[in-house]
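Reopening: structure tokens for the 0RA complex, inputs below.
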Amino acid sequence: MFMAALEKKDLFETDVPVNRGDEYSARDIQVLEGLEPIRLRPGMYIGGTDDRAVHHLFAEVIDNSMDEAVAGHASRIEVELEADGFLSVTDNGRGIPVDPHPKYPKKSALEVIMTELHSGGKFSGKAYETSGGLHGVGVSVVNALSDMLEVEVARNKNLYSMKFSQGTPLGRLENIGPINNRRGTKVRFRPDPEIFGPKAKFKPARLFRMTRAKAYLQPGLEIFWKCDPGTVEELDTVPHEAVFQFPGGLSDFLKETLGSNITITPDVFAGRSKKERGDGRVEWAIAWSPQGFGEADSLIRSYCNTVPTPDGGTHEQGLRAALTKGLRAYADISGMGRKASVITPDDVMHSVGVLLSVFIFNPEFQGQTKDRLFNTEVARLVENAVRDPFDHWLASSPKDATRLLEYVIGTANERLRRKKARDVKRKSATKKLRLPGKLADCSRKDPTDTELFIVEGDSAGGSAKQARNRETQAVLPLRGKILNVESASMDKISRNAEINDLMMALGAELGKKFDLEDLRYEHIIIMTDADVDGAHIAALLIAFFYRYMPGLIDSGRLYMAMPPLYKITQEARTAYAIDDAHKDDIIANVMTGRGKIDISRFKGLGEMMAKQLKDTTMNPDTRKLARITIDDENLPTTEALVETLMGKRADLRYRYIQDHAQFVKTIDI
Ligand code: 0RA
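Re-run output (same inputs, fresh job):
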């Protein structure tokens, strides 16, 4: 690297005799401080060596001409892409100074500007002006990374020229001769294939877009575009010649972007700060369009000294603050303050088209790609510039202002609604992870074809756990009776341990928060003893679901298991009966007249063998289920339901079940 630096030195200092045997000296350091680091690590200066970086070179060059225009010294810029890949940018500004540089008397200022890193602002005496440039790295970076670069300056009634290759002067600054009618600078260059690869080249469409955008940022400026027809691919829609001039500035840009989009207010809100010395200036154009902008719902383009800031920054912050505060203040004076209290800057910036351009003195950029404006004072500058005009704009057309305010409030409310829905989802998701300890969950995670058996008591729970299909059937034993929801407050219900376990197992919330989508199982089956207590518990559960999760019943996903009350055997024949009437029916119609009939009564589920429970009550292939339905026309009171199911009158219970039963499969009896 050191040797390479020495070699370069020979070419750089064109007017100093070269001594190849030189020891390491101050002059060598000088060389290292020149353009060599740029070629060694181009990524550090232009963020890479890809397509984007190639176009960055153009941005840097046109930004210098834009600085002249913004400072009021240039009124036209020409951009030309030539057939051989050369790109030139010409302006009618003051021209790069060509007189000897005070610090290096043997060199022209132009040479120093083109060959010294960071020399732009410092040496040029331009520090008092706002300047863009490639985030301040200067045109010397472009020079270092071009295999050829030529500068022409028309100044002092003379035309000068100097050529470089890879940042190294190919000769001295030449005076071509006198001219009378011209002033300005032309930079013509070609990206070095050694740096950017042999295939790297400018894309006409991209250059065209970048060039046109500049014209909007400086109303009055004329930009001429020209590209050799040979550079334009067949399918490109780039014209070979064009002139950009937008007297309406950012407003023109925004209107063109909006196209035929419908906007909330008929007028674009546009303006510029009054020119104030020592500060900076701000220009903006804003419109809200619910239709969005292509794929995106908003389009926010901001610039600092005509340099795009795609990552936003302090200028955008200031604008957000001004618009939000302005809308809130308008809401207050128009009696909508309470409704508008929910709006945030994000709501205001929803579906918005914004063009924001600031001109400041010492721009600082931040972030990986230096695409975000960092100067903290700019937030205040923009907020102050925009706030007053915004207030006036709103007040000048209350009808439109109110429509805008209502639109933004609508956005805020929609945001709040979504957040609430998300919170509920998240809550139920965490519930899913926190399952009650006594739940024997099924292994299948997808609710499809899964069942939760809500079982009375631990002993029945034990049998059910043995009898179940582990993959699809879960068992939740409830200890004791659950609350009677008819006589308990919501507060008390949500603190009840059994109900909490139930909610956790189901993954569902109560009341308005209940969402079928949250249910962890497809079918919920109440499985209680076929006795009075069992019926009571079932009734209480049904009442609870009816009251707090009606969607579960409406969707037909709540069932009662139909465990048998009697086992009837005759020789090798076995049948189960769910109640007395069923038993009588079996004895009369199923059993034969021969042989002793043995009838045993189950005292509870817990008393059944696991295999019996499985065959009679749980196995989907052999069991019966009763679907719980609510007959809205003859809606039973919970009392009536409890009365029916409690089994004080077993005939009622049987009838109820018969009336509502949906036999999934008929068991073999
Ligand atoms: C340094 C000082 C001055 C102008 C420029 C540079 C300058 C640079 C470029 C690059 C492209 N076009 C440009 N135009 C001007 C100010 C010179 C003066 O005070 O006359």
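The chain is about 40% helix and 20% strand. Residues 250-414 form a domain with the Ribosomal Protein S5; domain 2 fold (CATH 3.30.230.10). Marking as resolved unless the reporter disagrees.
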